[in-house]
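$ run holo --ligand "iron/sulfur cluster" --emit tokens
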Amino acid sequence: MNSKVLVAPSPHVHGGDSIQKNMYGVVFAMLPALVFSFVYFGMGAIIVTLTAVASCYLFEFLISKYLLKKVPTLNDGSALITGILLAFNVPANLPIWIILIGALVAIGIGKMTFGGLGNNVFNPALVGRVFLLISFPVQMTSWPKPLGFNTAYLDAETGATPLAIIKEGLKKGEPLSQLMHDIPSNMDLFMGNMGGSMGEIAGVALLLGLLYMLFKKIISWHIPLTILGTVAIFSGILHMANPEAYAGPLFHILTGGLLLGAIFMATDYVTSPMSHKGMIIYGIGIGLLTVIIRVFGAYPEGVSFAILIMNAFVPLINVYVKPKRFGEKRK
Amino acid sequence: MLKTFSLGGIHPAGNKLSASSAIQVLPIPEIVSIPISQHIGAPATPVVKKNDEVKVGQLIAKSSGFVSANIHSSVSGTVFKVDDIMDSSGFRRTAIIIKVDGDEWLETIDRSETLVTEISASKEEIIAKIAEAGIVGLGGATFPAHVKLSVPPGKTAEVLIINAVECEPYLTSDHRVMLEKGDEVLVGTQILMKALGVNKAIIGIENNKPDAIAHLTKLAVNYQGIEICPLKTQYPQGGEKQLISATIKREIPSGALPIEVGAVVQNVGSAFAVYEAVQKNKPLFERIATITGKSLKNPSNWRFRIGTPVKDLIDAAGGLPEDTGKIIGGGPMMGKALTTVEVPLTKGSSGLLLLPREEALRKESKPCIRCGKCVSACPMGLEPFLLMVLADKKEYERLENNAVMDCMECGSCSFTCPANRPLLDYIRMGKGKVGQIMRSRK
Ligand code: SF4
Ligand code: SF4
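-- output --
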């Protein structure tokens, strides 16, 4: 008799999913947006991406090896995601030294202080982005114009984002219908022909990524669709109440970092809730906060803050919002 | 949209390698070892002793309580001894070992193949017959069938649900029974309906068996009150709670039995056994099982005498493949790994799966990435990642509050986890401990 047969409890087979498959699946889903950013911003986008990714890997390696004294696990793909997301969240003409600081904060403070992948509370790339936004407001908000592939990097021509144009204009008391003339058409917004962070501009590319991730079951629809739905409804109500003071739902969805945030940032496994009910609460929270910050807050854009604020509630949501149990006694 | 259950679920590869292989009859071995505990409940009490002559179908161990089952000889010959042997549980337990001589059946058994559709037995007679024949849940649960048919006072059965889902990958014995014994299954279903006093039965079949659905649907027009219900293929639809949710959209409350929502579930193989017991006077001493595996020469379905060694079944299908890494009694999701091929096949043996070594090896477990996929997969709406952590930390009170006892041990969580965490191993451990604590409280 073959003495080598294994005896272990059920289940005896595994579905074959792995951390790597999911992580590289996310990276694959980000490729369309990456390509669009290269096309629109040229050389700058490439330099920013390479710097962000390389420095995230480097810091993860150094911190786990020398500070945490653990064997660095770089092949899980999570540093790659953080790197690309960090690049996606900054202008394509950001100087290298600022990117390095952003990566150090993202990996060092956002991820490793909590004990590495699986333990962090906040989305690392967003921690990096918000830190940079507060520390280097000028560099972080001078957006190069999407001029098609060019070789300009630091000296690229800059322009404002649609959200900033509206915010500034409304402050000066100009009516929305007037301001809308300065905004690219919805089609241009959808195709990414506007000022903004590297990865947030091309709605079409981000949506392609979403479809891919849903199809591959890397994420479920709950978080992205709840965020987008909440933003659409909330901004729609405001718009109907006063069309001259509040922009409509489509504008809110297509501009700024909303699609990027809803699809790639808020869906980060580690920092989002585990149950579908929890995901929906989290998504509604992000949607509401985004619109509130955009419309009533000091910053023109609010997605990053909204996600970070809701990240902070995730541990609470996980404890108090239980999935629907089968056969639960109904009240 | 096809019906299915309400929460969670996974889609493992079907691997129904033996689906087109007709049921064959496994040769009677020279010696059989028939365990006295092949069911949930108290072990039966042996009523034969060394050197007794027995015939096929003769009672050799008597049910020892309400939740227990009779055991009959599957062969004719001489009792060699009553002794402890290693059975499929991996423990040494009592079995009746019989040396085979010929194949002489009790005269009372009708061995003809003629279909008897007329049900002459009364409700009480049927239940008594089923108990006498030692029929248990043949899907693998092995719960004595007559117990489920005895509806407790204050409750009423409204519908009988026949579990023909066979949601475990690889297994095909129920599928073959439906194709080859369709009429017998339907008569068996009507007998069970009569026993319960219901006029409606639903046979739930997953749509990965379109031929069985078509065949039974065609036959069912001749039988009153039987509805064939095709279901969307999804594991673990064969779980009682899931099957009831899928077929009649009712949710059994936590901790309750199907009768709470007016349903009684019986396996399709049991329906066939009921037919044989009531119409043919034949106790349960043989059944049908699948022997399968990707490296096996001849994945197939066999009718075998209970007590036949596992080894005989493997040999009949072409012998143990070189690369075998695990021998599983049952399916890959809920089956049990066997330590040796010398153990006997029993009433609960729905199949035998030989898993190649590289598939049997578990991958290294990584830290949880909090993806929530185990939560989405759990058909009971639990949080497997949390239950594992709590079991590991021995936080039994929190385990109980997080409904660990609702876990049906389907393995969907471990199957799904991208970090290869052994979720169910820990949850099972925690469940055992919480169960102990709950019992000691009473
Ligand atoms: S084994 Fe238990 S915890 Fe895991 S999915 Fe099945 S019911 Fe849920
Ligand atoms: S599936 Fe695995 S990795 Fe994902 S949350 Fe559950 S235990 Fe953690």
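-- notes --
The two ends of chain A are 57 Å apart (CA to CA).
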